[in-house]
Design a protein that fits this description.
The chain contains 16 helices and 23 strands. It is an alpha/beta fold. It folds into three domains: 109 residues, Rossmann fold, CATH 3.40.50; 210 residues, Rossmann fold (3-Layer(aba) Sandwich), CATH 3.40.50; 116 residues, no CATH class. Strands 10-11-9-12-8-13-15-16-23 form a nine-stranded mixed β-sheet, with helices on both faces. A six-stranded mixed β-sheet has the order 3-4-2-1-5-7, sandwiched between helices. Helix 1 links the parallel strand 1 and strand 2. It is globular. The relative contact order is 0.12.
Length: 453
Amino acid sequence: MTTSDNKIIILGAGGRDFHNFNVLYRDRPGTNVVAFTATQIPHIANRSYPASLAGPQYPKGIPIVPEEDLERLVAEHGPVEVVFSYSDVSHEYIGHMAARVNALGCDFTLLGTSTMLTAKVPVVAVTAVRTGCGKSQTTRKVARLLTERGIRTVAVRHPMPYGNLEQQGVQRFATLEDLDRFDCTIEEREEYEPHLRNGTVVFAGVDYGRILAEAEKEAEVILWDGGNNDFSFYRPDLTIVVVDPHRPGHEVRYYPGETNLRLADVVVINKETTATYQGIVEVQHNVRRVNPRAKIIHAASPIFVDRPEAIDGKKVVVVEDGPTLTHGEMKYGAGMLAAEQFGAAEILDPRPWVRGEIAETFAKYPGIGTLVPAMGYGERQMRDLEATLNAMPVDVVVVATPIDLGRILKLDKPAVRVTYELEEIGSPKLGDILDSFLSRWGKGAARREVSRA
């Protein structure tokens, strides 16, 4: 690197930031990425993006520092270009960040679809306008429908590289044992495990160019399983976007969720059976206003409880998906609905009993309220979650996460699992959309004839 190089700082959260670097900056002459910053996710700062992933221009790797150090970095390196590379923040947040960066004498950059890689096979992308809209169950349904049509489908999950980056360049998950082999966090398990139980191979990691090359070897269709409200890393041939009428208006007030909405071929309005009529109407109006060409699917995510009788008349604590409650800003979820529906005598407020990093999470996100976020970005956080739940004087733990927490936490009281799947209301249905999509690619119909023979 030379002093005349264009210096860049990438603002990130351990995912999109690395992809943007790999695609646009890693091998670009005259460019020097001096640092990544980190926010949103605990324990992802104060490490390095390793040289093995950063490439020959960065023999010492690239430091990853807390976002709070941005001013110090600019003072150290002089005027730089600051590239914003994380998701699920309000448009107002983006404006304030741009002002902060511009006031330091720096340019503020938002990257778009130029970061998408092109696959050799068709890509179906499932994304959302906010964390917690229901894209996971939508993705699972799409995977099942494609498999039923005889299409070899591989899911590629938005990155969650919270461990050893050098060992996470390309990850392939085919069995539950692979989750242990890669020492996956609760957040990773929540996304991978349901796919694996349904027989879908999952790829994830850090280097999505190499991941794409491996996935193409196995897949007739690649299914992009989005994270937060980020847009796809791969150029989609069909884009399905999930919106949430429990948070009407958020579909046009959060970045890059509105980008997804404007890119959508299909919009799934989820959770309609538990949302207000006014919320559904507002979301539908906004969809039609900003993307009139998109097809709209109305849907619900009905809940399933393995032992509903265990809730009736009991004092319970409810555990919900962590990111949905934190930066997703949801105030309740499937667990709360199940506790109320099946007659819990009391839903206990966990705040007097929170421990360690779970207490820190409540301090950072005070709006969480009377739910426990299933935070588990590392061993310490998992143990603090375990200690919090074990300290609470309740009869039952109502667990509304996509995985069985009992497999990784030692709970001293019974747990009831709450799961949810996507069900369309009326027409069109996802199967209709996929049949039309597959026919355009010369797939599907002929394959079904073969399977019936």
